[in-house]
Specification:
Blueprint lengths: L2 E4 L2 E4 L8 H13 L2 H7 L4 H14 L6 H14 L4 H17 L10 H10 L3 E5 L4 H9 L10 E5 L10 H11 L6 E5 L2 H9 L3 E5 L15 E3 L5 E4 L4
Parallel strand pairs: 1-8, 2-3, 2-5, 3-4, 5-6, 6-7
Length: 239
Amino acid sequence: MTLRYAVDAVVLDIEGTTSATGFVVDVLYPYSRVRFADLLSQRADEPAVARAIAQVRELSGEPDADAAAIEKTLNAWLDEDRKATPLKTLQGIVWAEGFARGDLVSHFYDDVVPRLRAWHAAGVRLYVYSSGSVAAQRAWFSATPDGDLLPLTSGLYDTENAGPKQEAASYRRIAEATGVEPSRLLFLSDRPGELDAAREAGWHAVGIRRPGEPYFEQGVGDHAQAGSFDEITVSGSIA
């Protein structure tokens, strides 16, 4: 069964939706873990790093935490898969440099890139909303096996510039920023809490269910669902 939507824009989650969560957990997390110490000790004066350090201290309740304590907190959050903004910021810095050096190449499910290109060619705008930082998203879409996909996107959103992914206010903020009416936005994600928040904000929402992903067995509640992007048709008009 094909799901059909007349929308002006599609907003994409990454992990479990466009790309395998296993790749992020098994490849990217270890890559960042072994590089946090150098980042914190050698580049603490850089504005983005300094801001993230201050946020870690605030969130952990340790205002005097040194680099070693901050690294310990970051690694604990990694083990919990906690979607903490400063963790994602620092991961994004490390990953962006890894992608730029060629150490890393991102992963996309086979059905995703052809659909993204087709939707873009049809005039449907594409946005990304991920718990991963904007820097990480930019690197992810730039360094793919299919080349640089960043030109397909019209904007990138994370928990810092949009807000938490399970709060409707974040989706309202994105709608306002993009200038697209909520009823003309389609959100694709594997997480039911995110789908609920998008729907509460007036968006269309489709749950992506891929075998082997963490939320596959849980399902997506009462949302429409698809096993791949091939099951979704979007256009700028009902016709």
